[in-house]
């Protein structure tokens, strides 16, 4: 069974991006080539931005987004986010069809769809036309039914407890 899988990590609980990064650690151990495209986090700093360098050349990370639309520290107009989202889909399509990778991760793509930045049709098309052997991982809460239907593996992270509920802020090395 060397058919590629479509994997979805969704749900409210913490661990979606972390789970995808766990696969990066595992797969690069076998010298598999992995590309992670970050749809939302472009203007922020995350530990994986730095540790990814240590997994090069097997691992490549591409940050495209510009923070959440209308939330937190976002100052860019929506049209700007939409333009970047179109660019992100173009880059994802290129990476998926490049033949250079065993695994492609579209991090936070489900949020990008829900924010109306990325068209669901474009994502469905990416899943349906991916090279048969390529594993494709999509993360972000609120995964659309159609994407869940097309996927082979879907895990919903369920929040039972989160320190955020007690007012504890995001922790370096754990949350970012
Ligand atoms: P992680 O990157 O830690 O695996 P995630 O991918 O499941 O989290 P996102 O929705 O991408 O979750 O969250 C982005 C940021 O918000 C991360 O810093 C994450 O740790 C934090 N976070 C995730 N889930 C929750 C939650 N239920 N409450 C508060 N903060 C959260
Ligand atoms: Mg995430």
Automatic annotation (TrEMBL):
Molecular function as annotated in GO: ATP binding; corrinoid adenosyltransferase activity
One Pfam family per UniProt: CobA_CobO_BtuR
Entry keyword annotation includes Transferase: yes
Main enzyme class: transferase
GO biological process: cobalamin biosynthetic process
Gene3D superfamilies for the chain: P-loop containing nucleotide triphosphate hydrolases
UniProt KW keywords: Transferase
Keyword Transferase: yes
EC number: 2.5.1.17
Superkingdom of origin organism: Archaea
NCBIfam families per UniProt: cobA (TIGR00708), PRK05986.1 (NF004637)
Protein name according to UniProt: Cob(I)yrinic acid a,c-diamide adenosyltransferase
């Amino acid at each position: 069974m060397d058919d590629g899988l479509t994997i979805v990590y969704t749900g409210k609980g913490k661990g979606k991006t972390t789970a995808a990064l766990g696969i990066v650690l595992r797969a690069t151990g076998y010298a598999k080539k992995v590309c992670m495209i970050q749809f939302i986090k472009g203007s922020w700093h995350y530990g994986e931005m730095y540790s990814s360098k240590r997994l090069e050349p097997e691992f490549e990370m591409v940050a495209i987004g510009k923070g959440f639309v209308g939330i937190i520290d976002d100052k860019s107009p929506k049209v700007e986010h939409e333009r970047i989202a179109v660019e992100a889909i173009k880059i994802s399509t290129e990476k998926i069809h490049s033949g250079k990778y065993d695994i492609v991760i579209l991090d936070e793509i489900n949020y990008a769809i829900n924010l109306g930045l990325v068209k669901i049709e474009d994502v469905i098309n990416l899943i349906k036309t991916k090279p048969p052997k390529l594993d494709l991982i999509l993360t972000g809460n609120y995964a659309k039914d159609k994407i869940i239907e097309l996927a082979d593996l879907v895990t919903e992270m369920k929040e039972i407890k989160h320190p955020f509920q007690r007012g504890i802020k995001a922790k370096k090395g754990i949350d970012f």
